[in-house]
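Practice problem 4.
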């Protein structure tokens, strides 16, 4: 899959979480754990409720172990 505007973070030791903007302006997620040979498959997290595509780089942070918060701005300037 060809994605643009990728962000990365980690929610637990030894794991990398990737988020990117893909087809239709949806946010996609991928992850890798330190013992895996490769990343998992990309999964769509969807588009905003009103259906406008995301147009900015997603921002991803982890405020506590196992928790991820991801935000991006859609074409209508909503998060």
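Answer key:
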């Amino acid at each position: 899959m060809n994605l643009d505007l990728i962000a990365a973070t980690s929610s637990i030791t030894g794991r990398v979480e990737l988020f990117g903007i893909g087809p239709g302006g949806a946010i996609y997620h991928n992850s890798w754990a330190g013992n895996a040979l490769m990343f998992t498959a990309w999964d769509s997290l969807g588009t905003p409720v009103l259906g406008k595509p995301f147009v900015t780089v997603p921002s991803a942070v982890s405020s506590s172990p196992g928790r991820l918060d991801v935000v991006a701005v859609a074409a209508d300037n909503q998060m």
